[in-house]
Specification:
CATH class: Alpha Beta
Structural class: mainly beta
Largest sheet: 5 strands, mixed
InterPro entries: Beta-grasp_dom_sf (IPR012675), Mopterin_synth/thiamin_S_b (IPR016155), Thi_S (IPR010035), ThiS/MoaD-like (IPR003749)
Radius of gyration: 11 Å
Order of helices and strands: EEHEEE
Protein name: Sulfur carrier protein ThiS
Distance between the termini: 39 Å
Number of strands: 5
Strand content: 25-35%
Amino acid sequence: MQIELNGKPHAIADGADLVQLIAALELTGKAVAVAVNRQVVPSQLWAGRVLVEADRVDVVRAIGGG
């Protein structure tokens, strides 16, 4: 199925949740924030947040610097 990931089309498996998406993006264990359809989803709820066709997902990675 197709979702929108950071403004671009992205194919994922039917029934995939946010944990699976983050793993597929190789971001597991990294400092990231996720919003689905403009609503921030706390990381403790990622496993229960199943994605559906046309969901708009924004993933932001925190990068330190100075």
